[in-house]
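pls design
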């Protein structure tokens, strides 16, 4: 009977891990889509900045800055919700693992955000000023 319980726990851990990977992939896809839309909406601005001589690093800073503000807001809301739910559960959910777990998730979401925004940001740098201005 003990072996059957161990198998059940392992199966649950695998299923939970696969669900977390799916959530992470969906998060990355959502960030990518959101930043693709943001870059396409700022196409004219990026073209004008490029025409005025803005360096690619400055333009990347603007695009990545927007992403980090949005990710930071999501992390703050997520941490607040996690701590609130843990408090409602009497501290039984995080079992004292709150700080390292929340720190790890924050770093993971920041990395996911960086990876997801990389494509739209690089594509935004390839916008020619004449193409951006002629589009309207």
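designed seq:
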């Amino acid at each position: 009977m003990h072996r059957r319980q161990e198998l059940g726990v392992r199966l649950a851990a695998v299923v939970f891990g696969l669900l977390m990977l799916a959530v992470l992939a969906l998060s990355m896809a959502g960030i990518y889509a959101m930043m693709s839309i943001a870059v396409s909406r700022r196409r004219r601005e990026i073209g004008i900045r490029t025409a005025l001589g803005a360096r690619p690093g400055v333009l990347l800073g603007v695009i990545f800055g927007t992403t980090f503000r949005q990710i930071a807001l999501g992390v703050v809301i997520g941490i607040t919700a996690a701590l609130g739910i843990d408090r409602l559960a009497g501290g039984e959910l995080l079992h004292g693992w709150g700080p390292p777990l929340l720190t790890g998730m924050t770093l993971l979401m920041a990395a996911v955000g960086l990876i997801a925004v990389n494509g739209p940001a690089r594509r935004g740098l390839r916008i020619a000023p004449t193409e951006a201005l002629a589009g309207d």
